[in-house]
Amino acid sequence: MIKRLLAGAAAIGAVGGLGFLYYAWYPPIEPVERPDPSSFSAEQIERGRIVAAEGYCAECHTRTDMGGGPELAGDYKMDTPFGAIFSSNITPDPETGIGNWSEEAFQRAMHLGVSRKGVHLIPAFPFDHFTKMTEQDVSDLYAYLMTRPAVHMTRRPNELPFPLSLRILQAGWKLLYFTPGTYKPDPRHDALWNRGAYLSEGNAHCGACHTPRDFMGAEKKSAAYDGAVVDNWIAPPLNEHNPTPTTWTEDELFQYLRFGVAPLHGPAGGPMSPVPHRFLSTVPEEDVHAIAHYFADVDHAAEREKHDKAALARAMEQSKTDLIGPNVDPDAKLYQGACAACHYNAAPSPVLGRPDLALNNALWLDEPTNLYQVILHGLTAEEGQSGVAMPSFYNALSDQDMARIAAYLRRTRTTLPPWTDLEKKAAAVRKTVTTIPVNSSH
């Protein structure tokens, strides 16, 4: 009997293993000669440029460390809990890029996460979002990439430990977490909402940064847009869990995504800064409106907006009292000396270019990470609000100074419990700043 049970289990295991191999195996697709750039129309190339901008392709496929690298030539380092991953070269170089990929191979990579050679791609490449794109958009993107300058550049090898380095295991990940298929419009919503959902959930892959991940590195679908940590910054929630006291309305979202600054929420900094400045500022305005329209619904803006007037009045009142009369609070004096000259608002509403910190996401998050990052890095004139800069205080403020300012702002600008271990957290964030900002105060 035992032998029979063991034999049955072995047979079931063998059948299951063969079934998995059948599921996991994809044949290579034959290489082709690089398509002649003149074979693509100017209209298709421009459509592809828009697709590339809305998917931020250059952001993750251009090296930023080691002095930087050519656009789209890959070798961008992504630090993950599993080890460092380096992005691929997507210029049309036949040897180190995708110049010998047919459109069929490119479509398969975008929709199924499988390379031309039949190798499963690591989901740091967000094919779980790109699968929602239409064949036409992927075709247009292919045309755009194949007409870029070919760059002969190899990437560094990934630093994934065994057995995670075995690509066949990615098929198991897909079996658990990946559902291929293009976006299906939701009939309960209008065309603008569906366009915004298509872009946000597909090409723009907003959830890749703004949705927390589980121990396997997959997005937690039950916590979509709940916020996550990205490149040592916090990508805040995009849904009703966003803690800021004023609502991210459709107009606020549009201003932020199109121009990099929202009147009631301040500027885009850190990893988010290139999204409006390098990419969404160059695409059709109606697409940015669609994304804003979609997320205004996701965060229930229409229901939350009624509280905005009271929150705005409270923020303006606190800003005025900071600089009126003597103040015996030593933390307030430090804030006045370092910050209040630029962040002071006495008008009924914030002055654009002087973000009121009482309304900013950074003070309302569970951790002071983003506040510290902005203090340490500052904002250049190319980030945040165009032409308006904030100096780095990397050298000017100690960890203790930053902790005092964070504590003061948290208790005077929010209605939330105080942050803890502020000095320790300031030191931890400082360690992530590998290059001292060139605009650092002395």
UniProtKB/TrEMBL annotation:
Amino-acid positions noted as binding heme c 3 in the UniProt annotation, renumbered to this chain: C339, C342, H343
GO molecular function terms attached to this record: electron transfer activity; gluconate 2-dehydrogenase (acceptor) activity; heme binding; iron ion binding
Keywords for this protein: Cell membrane, Heme, Iron, Membrane, Metal-binding, Oxidoreductase, Repeat, Signal, Transmembrane, Transmembrane helix
Domain Cytochrome c: residue ranges: 43-149, 191-299, 326-413
Gene Ontology, cellular component aspect: plasma membrane
Cofactor: heme c
InterPro entries: Cyt_c-like_dom, Cyt_c-like_dom_sf, Cytochrome_c-type_DH, Membr-bd_ADH_cyt_c
Name listed for the protein in its UniProt record: Aldehyde dehydrogenase cytochrome c subunit
Organism: Acetobacter ghanensis
Gene: adhB
